[in-house]
Design a protein that fits this description.
The protein is mainly β and about 70 residues long. Helices cover about 10% and strands about 50% of the residues. It has one domain (about 5-60): OB fold (Dihydrolipoamide Acetyltransferase, E2P) (Beta Barrel). It contains one helix and four strands, in the order βββαβ.
């Protein structure tokens, strides 16, 4: 796989929560570090995402916001 995004994180699927249109996918990218993405249900099915499967989180953004109280 070749991709232009520089921020890719290899991980293990910890949870897939399917909805009627979208699915919530949680990957563990390091021990105790999880990333969650909302993708279309059809994409989750096409990728065969299921608990324990290896997958990549790909982050492509021009802005990242951080806030505190």
């Amino acid at each position: 796989m070749e991709i232009s995004a520089r921020n890719t994180f290899k991980g293990i699927v910890k949870k897939v929560v399917p909805g009627s249109v979208n699915s919530e996918v949680t990957l563990e990218v390091a021990p105790g570090v999880e990333m969650t993405a909302i993708i279309t249900k059809s994409s989750a099915e096409r990728l065969g995402l299921a608990e324990g499967k290896e997958a990549y989180a790909v982050v492509k953004a021009t802005d990242v916001m951080v806030a505190t109280d």
